[in-house]
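the two lines:
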Amino acid sequence: MTLRSSGEAVAKPASSGLGWLLDQRVLLSIAVLALLPWLLPSKALAVNVLIYGVVVMGYNLLFGYTGLLSFGQAAFFGAGAYFTGIAIGRYGIPWFAAVPIAVLLSTCLAAAIGIVSTRTRGIYFSMVTLALAQLVYYVALQAASFTGGENGLRGFTVDRISLFGLQVNFLDPVNKYYVLMAFAALAMWFQSRILNSPFGAVIEAIRENEQRARACGYDVERSKLVVFMLSGAISSLGGCMLALHLSIVPLDILHYQTSGMIVMMVLLGGARSFFGPFVGAASFLILEDVISLWTPHWQIFVGAIFVLFVLFLPKGIWGTLLDALGVGKVRR
Amino acid sequence: MDLSLIIMQLLSGIALGAVLVITALGLTIVFGMLGVVNFAHGALFMIGAYAGLYLASLTGSFWWGLLLAPILIGAFGMLIEFVLIRRLYGRSIDDPLLLTFGLSYILVEGVRIVFGSDGIPFPTPPQLIGVLDLGIGFFPRYRLFVIVLVAVVLLVLWLTLEKTRVGLIVRAGARDPTIMQVLGVDIGRVWLAIFGLGVGLAALGGVLAGPMRSVNPEMGSLVLAEAFVVTVIGGLGSIVGAVVAGLMVGVSISMVALFAPEMATIVMFALMAVVLLIRPQGLFGVRGRTA
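prediction for all of em together
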């Protein structure tokens, strides 16, 4: 990808040695994630970082790369989880078929919400996505016979899965982590392909200057809708992973607080960077873990830290780090 | 179905809508002037309700709570503008939004620490307990009072904006802040006051809503979504739009509740989606600014 953000000159990536390695952002990210369960204090935390990392990565496509600040990403995270649970529990569909079905249905939901919300611009977009996600929340609350309402969705435990004739005990946290990591790796490869494609250049052009992108002949409205759907699809995969991991889907997953948490994670980690979402998810979850050890009111600290980030560190941890190391924008 | 029942439900909807109007008005005025959408608006609504409750029990009178809470919380809002939001003018339009979102986390958790996580009942003032015979049916006195009070506040606000010198400065500042500065108006002070006014209106909405719904730390997030729906339908930045859309949403909620209760929470979002598909800038919005 040769698009230059904010007019900065970008060196062409070197094709050998360290330069080559730095260009393999998907492989590098997978390598880090493979080590994660052994770096973090608990396996449960590592699984959560993986799941939220995928959700936030999908959201980053919309917010970081296209510049659309949505406050409704929880709708797709939740949709992925609910559709997976309903497909397995209610219709007895095996998990490997339930996941693609759930992603497909969630993408349709993203299309419906996207058609309404991408007609608006700027601050309007944030408000409309928030309101429409609340609509999804209330629908799930009311349709209790399908979703379990306030009690959440239960009764679809996946305890064993067979991979190429191999029986894997899915209740073992390490097995579970690496199975879910395969989903994450797929999502990362997909996202990297989107960003490297001409379409990836178009969405960044829209972020930098919407009018100019339109003047260049790109269909801005259609691109926004497509990126909204792609972003929803990737985040919904995170939802599928959560459903497989927890064996229940709490109603809270659709709440506006979850959308807010996704926004916080992407900003903590660093919007517009490939690995930033995972750094953001990890920082947020570790922060929550550590602070809630000595006070139930961890949200007040998380809120304060977030405010400080907005004021003084808008590029987030990973983005600031990459800037400090002088890593070119191409290699993010 | 009985006609008088429908009229009573209509009045209920207007009372519900009146609170929405006041809350959404605060949001829309701040946006119209400062170009900032305050994501902490719902949290400040909630804090207003708590402040009203606390002041009422401190002074022993609901009326002091109703008067003092909006003033105090409005002053707190001015502090927020002065300390935090002022730093973000000139940066991305998303930044104040993100900052106020983080702020809402702090405010909600702060209230949980001070008042606990459980809901607290907000007693109706003794003078307004009971119902009034309107000839065709009985209507709660308190709700009638809410409608009248909101009408008075709207009238005062309208007169101030349209007929006074201060109002002239505010209207001109919304149109072109740069020219106002050239003319020697300290626009920073106007913005400070407007932000305080917007937050004060949120707090007033909170106190008024107190006796009608339960007061709890989470009430703000629902109100924020409602206020967003109202401002999007009316057109962001439009005062007339906030009034019309607020009443429209309130009446639709209570009318739908009469016929299909399970749809009541959903109807306003559906209304918003329809409006957006037909008029993306909202009923009274100006095209180009936001849509």
